[in-house]
Amino acid sequence: MDDLIVLKNLRKIYKMGDEKIVALDDINLNIGKEEFLCLLGTSGSGKSTLLNMMAGLEKPTRGEIIVNKLHLERMNEKDLTNYRQRYIGFVFQSYNLISTLSALENVSLGLIFKGIPKSKREKMAKTMLINVGLGNRLHHKPSEMSGGQQQRVSIARAFVGDPSIVFADEPTGNLDTKTTFEIMNLITSMAKESNQTLIIVTHDTEISVYANRIVYMRDGNIEKIVANEKAEGEVV
Amino acid sequence: MSNIDLVRMGIKNLWRRKLRTFLTVLGVMIGTSSIVVMLSLGFGLSESFTEQISQWGSLTTINVYKRWQDPSMPKQKESKLDETAVLAFKAIPNVEAVSPTLETYGTIKTGRYVANVPIKGIVPEAMEAFGFEVQEGRLLNDNDELTILFGGGMSNNFYDPKSRVWREPKIDLMKDRFTFTFDQDMGYNYGGGMGNEKPNYKEYKIKVAGVLTEGNWETNYGVYMPLREVQKLMVEKAKAEDPKSRPSKETEYEQINVKVNDMKNVQAVQDAIKDLGHEAYSLNDQLESMKKTAGTIQMVLGGIGAVSLIVAAIGITNTMVMSIYERTKEIGVMKVIGASIKDIKRLFLLESTMIGIIGGVFGVALSYILSFFVNKFSGVFGDFLGTGGESKISIIPIWLIFAATAFSALIGILSGYFPAKRAMNLSALEAIRTE
């Protein structure tokens, strides 16, 4: 199986005043195409830092991040922007929708930066919102929607550009159990449908059961990697 | 990110904070209009100076006189105003017409009215070029003999010597018969002077070609005749005063007038004439110095106006910085979902530029309104300031409108630059984490 993402000897140190905090110690990990990977760990384990690095939002102190044969650690800001536009979608814990824009506008925002013309991107955004079950909420503002609905908009935004990889940072952290399952089912089925790689960060073991592989993290290192054979299909 | 999306997004962002945008725009508006109105006062001043001076005579005419020969500087070129000089002047670039002039004094009589007038000789074909216009009749031509052209204000120059009070003379300049003589006393009866023998001046019947339009002070109170005729009359005058006198072979003129095609070329032509060794004057000399004064006043006024635009520029920067604080999270999200730092920079620069342009456009509109009111009441002020009621106090040239709008747009760009840079450099991760 081809490896889409290769991490080699990845290390990240934060400086807080005089103190050095090792967020990632020495990470080596290969992630395949169309894989659903879960980074599981307590807070401070370095899982979010790892995710941000793969999304090109943070630079490593040392080591290599190779995505589709591109070395992220060597890229400048402009190349990283291109990389984000072409390869990745991002789902946040706190949704991060722009409060002044409607659901439709939020979803099409990323397409604006790609330079897709208005009529086309609105069509794409509308299709995507219908796919996530918000066909009747197109023109609602985030404040007029529930948390679950907002996260659906956020998912639509992440998937609308048909990225190769979708990153989700605690996507269900703010949601109740019932909605959590709805969202997880949605996100996994969508990723599978379009053969996308999905990487989710969570501390919730219930969510990790959706994944093909679960990477347990502790203190900036990979503790163990567990393959999950039964992950296929939806959990009810 | 396409330009149309950029503009759309920029407008949306400005519209989102209507009141703040409006107040910032208002600041730019006041700044722009204060500069424009201040500058317009300067232009008005300069214009009214020009108008005042043009009442004294034509601004494109240079009067050339003979230069006084300084005995201590024998190497000076000799200044001789003859036909050679006329030809030399005609050869100078931008010279439209050259006319030597001779002037003599005499008396014109009709019925019981007389007028003592300067008789000015002029080359008939140059008259049109020198801007002479008739209100009645025609201009002079080469075949005219003893034919005159009255200045526009001449009818009031006639008076009845026997009357004690001046009444408006009842004269038709075109139809009445006129005679001319060099005798300045005609009409008065001194009855043989104090033993002085009076020269026996001839009396000439003269024809009237026309009457000039009332123009400037130079032409209003004179009588024009073809140069050749004046020369003839002067010879006869000299003979009457001293029968033994011989007219000199070479004619020298008292003055040569040179007409230049455009005001901006007057200085150059004037310098060229001076280089030929003559004395040359034009109203341009006065105009230049007055315009310099007007320019200085304008600079001071514009500087005062500029202060308010600087304040407005700080207002724009402030608005944009505030906006970045509020939108930090939004900027972070945009970066994560694929906005390039260039897009972010362009967006913020565009917003500040739009504030500048909108403020500029409305500022120009406001200055027109202010200018209108200033001019409306300028009758009152104008008399008070002595600028005369004719010209406007505030003049806004077309180019100033575009310059002002462009300048306020530039102010917008400059004031947005620092905030845009700030937005660009925000770390996406940190921006997202701010609440």
Automatic annotation (TrEMBL), chain A:
Ranges for domain ABC transporter: 5-235
Cellular component aspect of the GO annotation: membrane protein complex
Protein name as annotated: ABC transporter ATP-binding protein
PANTHER family according to UniProt: CELL DIVISION ATP-BINDING PROTEIN FTSE, LIPOPROTEIN-RELEASING SYSTEM ATP-BINDING PROTEIN LOLD
Membership in a protein family: Belongs to the ABC transporter superfamily.
GO MF annotations in UniProt: ATP binding; ATP hydrolysis activity; transmembrane transporter activity
Assigned keywords, A-Z: ATP-binding, Nucleotide-binding, Transport
UniProtKB/TrEMBL annotation, chain B:
UniProt keyword annotations, A-Z: Cell membrane, Membrane, Transmembrane, Transmembrane helix
Keyword Membrane: yes
Bilayer topology term: Multi-pass membrane protein
InterPro entries per UniProt: ABC3_permease_C (IPR003838), MacB_PCD (IPR025857), Macrolide_Exporter_MacB (IPR050250)
Compartments where located: Cell membrane
Pfam families (alphabetical): FtsX, MacB_PCD
Molecular function in Gene Ontology: transmembrane transporter activity
GO CC term, one of those recorded: plasma membrane
Main localization (coarse): membrane
Domain MacB-like periplasmic core: 21-145
Domain ABC3 transporter permease C-terminal: 304-427
Domain of life: Bacteria
Transmembrane segments annotated in the record for this chain: 21-45, 299-325, 346-374, 394-418
Signal peptide (UniProt feature, chain positions): none
Entry's family note: Belongs to the ABC-4 integral membrane protein family.
Name of the protein in its database record: ABC transporter permease
